[in-house]
Amino acid sequence: MHDTQEIAINTGPIIALVAALGDLRVLQIYRRVWVPLEVCQEIAVGGKARFALAEFEAAHWLQKHPQPLRIAPVLLNTLDKGEAAVIQLALDKAIATVCIDEPAGRRAARLHGLTLTGSVGILLRALREGYTFSMHSAIERMQAHGIRLSTRVIEFALTQAAEKGANL
Questions:
Q1: Which residue segment(s) compose the domain that 85 sits in?
Q2: What whole-number distance in Å separates Cα of residue 137 and Cα of residue 155?
Q3: Would you say residue 122 lies in a domain?
């Protein structure tokens, strides 16, 4: 079994978790959460609203990698810089699990032998480990912030959380 106490996380899940719960404390279900510099930079740029920046900066316990990574060309040629950096950091530091929501990044991570989770997977694990929140409400807040989730993912999340999906 892979070590699931340590993960490397991408920009999308960080934003999705802040949208869902208002902060990043839920990531403390992991012993160590690694964030590549490239992801830190994406969050800092953050568009006009700079959504999730304050919550990201407040999470001092995150392991923010301080320098740019030497990312393999095969990753840079097929993924955005954040996803490529998450996979490269996981490979460099022997981190078995990555948190990526985007399909292309998930495929590349699988091809590199990494274990995957996503923002919904983190929420489900948090519920199993005793956090209390409504998955239904978390999904609604994510969607209100423009986070796209497939019907399949929503149904899976609500089923696993033992909640009914009223009007999602």
A1: 6-129
A2: 13
A3: yes
Number of Cβ atoms within 10 Å of the Cβ of 131: 14
User: What is the structure's pLDDT at 149?
Assistant: 93
| Region for residue 117 given its phi and psi (left: phi exceeds 0; alpha: psi -120 to 50; beta: otherwise) | beta
Assess if residue 155 is contained within a domain.
no
| CATH, residue 68 | 3.40.50.1010
- Half-sphere exposure (Cβ direction) of 43: Cα atoms closer than 13 Å: 25
Predicted TM-score (pTM) of the model is 0.92
Region of 47 please: left (phi>0), alpha (psi -120 to 50) or beta: left
Number of separate domains in the chain = 1
pLDDT tens per residue, range 72-126 = 999 999 999 999 999 999 999 999 999 999 999 999 999 999 999 999 999 999 9
